[in-house]
């Protein structure tokens, strides 16, 4: 099988879709003399290529971090043996991504940590006669299916399982052999906030707000009820005060001593009360698809097509495999019509962080799909921002008109109050990125602009209510927060300054582009002109005016103006020096420092991936690789690429941001320039990718062989202006099939 990108010439211009091809003179030739036809052809057996990255188990998985996993963005399962459970049982731990509590505030306090959290669902046990002694399992990425053998002290049984990609149905087939028999049983869990459960045991912080949550009433909902109809079984679980409900339904057919099939469906509904009806329909639809043989074929067709959106290969098998598992995981975890991807996705684990985190985590999650050219899967964030716009407005203080904001952590409906809109603005930067990569100017105008305008109004309202008297004529921010540095509250915090600059500049740009003549434009320009400068010392960017960066800290909040906002960039020599000093200092203190009072683990997964991305932006591929490698060797990274912090808390954004770091090393498009191979190490001398996406809605394909860039091909999906930076010496440029000479490094 040829894994390389083979170059064939084609550059026709159709419907304002243009293509630019930049060729090195060495190693390529025109095909059959047809100089006006140029295209990139991918000669790869995709099924074989993706399958070489399958995950394989030669022992029984015994935790969520080592378990096979499948999902469709809404429901999914983990397959593992419960620690301390029956030795003859292995479990299908099922989850529903949007299964959140909907309790009302207590005495005016939202208490989202305990009243609005993700909830546990339950598991199916596969009980054999003999005790489980081993496993031989394979998670096939190409078809997104689990298969293999469980061996027991008595015999063995085959398993085949998947989560159907187009319907909320989980499929599990068992085939018992050698006298084995498999009994499948359902075991529901009580819908109890995992944070409240931890507080009940004396865990958690001891601050006054946590004491209030410990003492707040937490009545349990009514117990689940079981029912059956037409060979289907149902477990109905109402939530407290009947605010939401979840039904798990299942059907078992076949012979426990031989082949049997479990189909299961889960639906959570609020404010509707239709979970039973929805699950019943899902199971009946599954029956029909199984009868007409379309159940498996439709599932496989979707997954096989999904992988074709883009291609990436590097001569580093470990890094390449980790990347492609993230592509599988992302498509399993979220879809455009689904919920916002929280820290777990469809795969529940008891955690102290059971919701969406908006001070870094959700933002990192929603960078992955952009360059990977998988926009539909990652559209769930922008779709839910649009859906819950009214809640964002209600989050702002009642005294502020025409404003919007968002808390640092929030449930799926984004109902989480806060004064300063920093977290909302950072989420809206992801919205902006999505529109930029999609080339969707209408959504930028009609979707982003109105809600970003309200978020900036929150800044304006805050600044008017909290003036800072100084003699420098600058606008100062009296007090904000740099996540999650301690002490991170203070004046002129760089995290906030960067977000104000980005949001105001974006509003000014959109106002000019669409000729909106917004009456607030003068206030945005005034902020840009008069906002206090970034706080800097000999070590680079500080946390804030009175807070130097001196303690180990996993977050890079104070560097946000560099990455990802790009309001300070390496394009200017003096800024490049500032950014390099700031980045080196952050990592030196964080990796070697001993003062742990800033809180959190010194180096976490996203510390490494953020460092890799930033070094790639600075063009240092060796340092980028160093931190990419450090991430893979982080003790929180499991063999399945799942990631946990503090031992048991799922944190899904870090493996996804690993994929983002790979993208940043291979292809960048910040600041209006497309950069091919801007930050790769020397050891990656054979690299190829096809149809990676950039800002401006360009698809880029490129190949490096023996350390030499052979070509860069760029296809414009929207007809936008294109600026390209490559390392090709003396290139030949073709635009629309026409050979253009002479040219320099930048086009």
What does this structure look like?
By secondary structure, the chain is of the alpha+beta class. It folds into three domains: 92 residues, no CATH class; 255 residues, putative glycoside hydrolase family protein from bacillus halodurans (Beta-galactosidase, Chain A, domain 5, Distorted Sandwich); 366 residues, Alpha/alpha barrel (Glycosyltransferase). It contains 19 helices and 34 strands. The strands form nine sheets. It has a nine-stranded antiparallel sheet. It has a seven-stranded antiparallel sheet with strand order 18-29-30-31-2-33-34. Strand 21 and strand 22 form a beta hairpin. Helix 14 crosses helix 15 and helix 18 packs antiparallel against helix 19. It is globular. The N terminus and C terminus are likely disordered.
Care to give the gist of this entry?
By secondary structure, this protein is of the alpha+beta class.
Task: List the defining traits of the structure above.
Beta-galactosidase, Chain A, domain 5; 747 residues; disordered C terminus; 19 helices; 7-stranded antiparallel β-sheet
